[in-house]
Amino acid sequence: MPEHTNGSTKAPTMADVAARAGVSRALVSTVFRNVPGASPTTRERVLKAAADLGYRVDNRARTLRSNRTGLVGVVFRVQDAFHSDFVEALYPVADKSRFNLVLSATTRARSEVDAAEALFDDRCEALILVAPQMPDTQLIDLAQRSPTIVVGRKIRSTAVDVVRTPDEEVVRLAVDHLVSQGHRRIAHLDGRSIRGSVDRRRSYLKAMRGLGLEEHATVIAGGNTEIEGMRAAETILAAPVRPTAILAFNDTLAVGLMFGLRQSGVAVPEEISVIGYDDIHMSALPFINLTTVGQDATATARGVLDQVAGRLDDKSPAGSERLVPPYLKVRTTTARPTS
């Protein structure tokens, strides 16, 4: 622990920072509250003194003295790679705002409702739910208790706010990329019962019809995990006519599919091209190097916290929807078909 002004190792206080910076305690408080009243030079001197002493502002103690906590709860799935990427993108955006994040994870033994209730117990002013799987009715119930922003899922409700990447644009980017390489037999490995899989499936069929490729459209039962992707490889290889390219519901499923194909001696992309969705960190690993359509996690994080601020400040109505454009990341798992 940094040394205290009197030579002890006691945790430094605001008074210690004031003494070291040569200013009043009130001026130190002004700097830490980030309100007008301190010159840039004074502000820099106070922040340097705090850093030298290792002083940290106790935001929770401050918020307990007011009716506003500044706490925003985030419900996410531990097992989902994109959820982790999104939370990682959310922190730097939150650090530049007035909000502090409180995370509440779901697991196989902990439901989304349990995770949300824990955040209410922590006095969170708003909730962010990353691709929730609970029914719309439960989401609407949560929204009656606090502003609720859903990430990555279409919700038809005037109570719940949404920030998402449009499925039609995601599928269009993927299918257009594969068609530009000469593919026609393009299959979709879907998300089975995962929320959002129906919209993704409809968007795929619509894109194939729009390109005059409906006779080649094939939907293969997939899921949400690497294991389900590997199982789907068996189904694909047993078909009398194989697709030359496959659009997977997400990157995790695509990675499992690739492993399953390669394990059976099928070369990716030489024999079957594979494209995913999400652009998770794992996709860029050299031995995976997955072509994918990405969600812009940083832009989504900004949109979510802007929505939180708008709701809490009564500047935006409930039920708003923000759309974040996707992007195509071409790596090495897609190529021209060999036949």
UniProtKB/TrEMBL annotation:
GO terms for molecular function: DNA-binding transcription factor activity; transcription cis-regulatory region binding. Residues 12-66 form the HTH lacI-type domain. The keyword Chaperone does not apply. PANTHER family: HTH-TYPE TRANSCRIPTIONAL REGULATOR GALS, LACI-RELATED TRANSCRIPTIONAL REPRESSOR. InterPro entries: HTH_LacI (IPR000843), LacI/GalR-like_sensor (IPR046335), Lambda_DNA-bd_dom_sf (IPR010982), Peripla_BP_I (IPR028082). Transmembrane segments: none annotated. Keywords: DNA-binding, Transcription, Transcription regulation. The keyword Transcription applies. This is HTH-type transcriptional regulator AscG.
